[in-house]
Structures are given as structure tokens and as C-alpha cells.
Amino acid sequence: MIEKVSPQNALVLVTGVSGFLGGHVALQLLQQGYRVRGTIRRMASATTRIPRFQPFTENLSLVEADLNYDQGWTEAVSGCDYVIHTASPFPSGAVRDEAGLIRTARDGTLRVLRAAHQGRVQRVVLTSSIAATNHGSGRAPFSERDWTDVGSKRATPYYKSKTLAERAAWAFANEHGLSLSVVNPGPILGPLMGYELDSSVGLVWKLMNGKFSRLPRYGCSIVDVRDVAIAHVRAMVEPQAAGHRFIVGGRVFSMKDLSHTLARCFPEYKSSLPTAELPDWFVRILALVDADAQSIVHELGRDLRVDTSKAAAMLQWHPRPEEETIRDCGRSLIDRGLVPLRTATRSL
Questions:
Q1: Which strand (E) or helix (H) includes residue 331?
Q2: Confidence of residue 2 (pLDDT cuts 50, 70, 90)
Q3: What average pLDDT does the chain have?
Q4: Catalytic, out of 4, 153, 162, 270
Q5: Domain CATH code at residue 107
Q6: Domain named NAD-dependent epimerase/dehydratase: which ranges (predicted)?
Q7: Residues pairing with 182 in the sheet
Q8: Per residue in 44-70, is it b (16+ CB within 10 Å) or e — as a string?
């Protein structure tokens, strides 16, 4: 049973606060008046992280903790009312150590949960992914009842890491009576707080920088980082959310849809944004040598729609239009100089 704690009196630990989602979760909490303690892997980077949270920095503190080590987690959780665990390894490029990726995700999650249980926090909210729901025997629209089959040929190392980490979290929570909620977002886009690119925003970066000449026929259920952050905070405080998973996502956008939307929002970049698509057979051949192609080859032609009715009903979660998300994502890339500024040409 969650005790009502006013935001001004509540302290929330956010793991991975320097990440794309973790930063937005922390900002959402700070804006609502919560005190936030964020974990980072190296305190040496603290001075570059804190300014992102102006004007709320007086309610923010940072501590060092690494998912690969036991040290620091007990101290990080000490005195906290809630824990939101967003930190998880995300591979860039080909995965050379699948076992290591899975170990960090699963064992790191258990380190956080053990510390939370020992610290008697009121609830833990875990960031999982639709990577843990969309790749089993279920069919679209995928729901919280669906689980990825880690033995499937579609299960990439990342999908396995998210699935096994979430499975381990539920097993721990059930064994120890820990109040746990899980949020399973689709690929996350939206405005950056820093300069780091994750894979989803990196896709927009590649499109706007002309890195694609043709596009694979692949689509996914995109979602705004700000809306995912809201879902985490609501899952944290909603009494009925304990023991539940929540899929959060939007309409399925193909790569072609994404490119078209960026061209409408930023016509000055239209020349960099392709519309021609690659045949599936070519992507399958490319997957033999290219890590990006390999990560999507088993999704070609699949219906990846998701059912978000549970989040809507229990969390009152209603995402903003996907076009707004894509526009704000592109604008933040331009504003940070990650995409060169272009001047829109006007026809006479």
C-alpha cells in the first residue's frame, strides 16, 4: 500500500539520470516539486549534467553507482521514497559480448531492486521496452500479456537483455513482496536535453544528415520521451499500478513516414531526406555485414502495432501527436548543432 507523500517531502532515486529518458524523468519529477537523486557512472561528469536541470538544481543531487558493481547502490537508495530505474545498457553497433550485455541489464536491475527492498521504498518503477513484448508468439496489436521469446530468431541481444531483466525483476518482486510497476515504451523520440544520441534519436540524426539514400521497409511504434517520463511518474504514485506492466507507444511510423514528416516540418532538409525504399531481399543481404540492418531484418513486413489502452485507463496516459514528437526531435538536433543549420528557401 502506497502512503501518500507530497512531492515536496518525497525523494526519488532516478538511475541513469544522464540518459535521454532518465533526464526527462528527473526533469518531470523536479517540475512537479519532487526531490531527485540521480545516479551516474562517473562523478567526474557531474558538472556537465547538472546545468541541464535549471532552474531546479537545488532539488537535485547526483551519486555514483554502476550497474556492474554492488558498491554505491545501498547509499544511493538510502532515504528514498521511490526508485525509478531507467538505466540499462544499450549497444551501439554489433554486439560482441551478448552474455555481458544480458548480465549487466539483468544483474544491474537486481542490484537496484535489492537495494530498494532493503531501503523499504514504497515503489520501484522499471523501464523495460516493447522489445520485451513484441517478439514472441503474440500478434499485433501487442499488449502487456505478450512476452518476447528469447529463443526466437527475432530476439536480438538487446531484446534478450530487456526481456530477461524484466523477467528477473518480476521474479524478485513477487518473492520479496516489492511494489513494482514496469513501463514498456516503444522507440523513444523527442527533444534532447544534452548532446548524446541514442539509437532512436540517432535514426532522425542520420536521416537529417543525409546518411540514407534509400530506406528499409521497416516501421515501429514511436513515442515521445516527455510522455514516457509522465507514464513513469504516474506509475510511481498510482496505487493500482503496482504489479502491472504498461505499454506506451503511438502509431507505427515506417522509415518512409518518418522521412516524409521531417520533410514537412523542415522543408530546407528535404534534399537530404529520401523516400525511395530498399527491397527486402537487399536488406537481408545487407544484414550479413551491417549491424543496423541485422537489428531490423527479422521485423521486415511485420505488424508491430501496440495496445496502449491499459496505460490510458490506469494511468490516464494520452500521448501527444507523433508529428509534434518528430518535429521537436529534429528541432533539438538543429538547435544543438548536431544537424547543420540550413536556411529555408522561399519561392518568389
A1: helix 322-335
A2: low
A3: 93
A4: 162
A5: 3.40.50.720
A6: 12-249
A7: 126, 245
A8: eeeeebeebbeebeebbebbbbbbeee
Residue with cell string 515521445: 224
321: Cβ–Cβ under 8 A, 6 or more apart, which residues? none
- The CB-side HSE value for 175 (13 A sphere, CA atoms) comes to 10
**Inter-residue contact 198 to 227 (CB < 8 Å):** no
The reply to whether 232 falls in a domain is yes
Q: Which residues contact 48 (CB under 8 A, 6 or more apart)?
A: none
Let me know if residue 128 belongs to a domain. Answer: yes
Tens-digit pLDDT profile for residues 211-266? 999 999 999 999 999 999 999 999 999 999 999 999 999 999 999 999 999 999 99
Which tens digit of pLDDT belongs to each residue from 265-274? 999 999 999 9
243 grid coordinates: 504489479
Q: Grid coordinates representing 28?
A: 518531470
Helix (H, G, I), strand (E, B) or coil at 206: helix
Give me 137's grid cell. Answer: 508468439
Whole-structure pTM value: 0.94
Compare 199 and 346 and report the one with higher pLDDT: 199
**Is position 34 within any domain?**
yes
Q: CA-to-CA distance for 47 and 306, rounded, in angstroms?
A: 39
| Domain that includes residue 142, residue range | 9-188+223-249+305-318
Copy the grid coordinates of residue 315.
494511468
Residues in the chain: 348
Total structural domains in the chain?
1
To the query of whether residue 162 is one of the catalytic residues in this protein, the response is: yes
Task: Check if the beta carbon of residue 182 is closer than 8 Å to that of residue 240.
Answer: no
Interatomic CA distance for residues 191 and 338, integer angstroms: 12
Residue of 139, 249, 159 lying closest to 149 (CA atoms) = 159
Does residue 208 belong to any structural domain of this protein?
A: no
**Unique residue bearing C-alpha cell 502506497:** 2
pLDDT of residue 297: 87
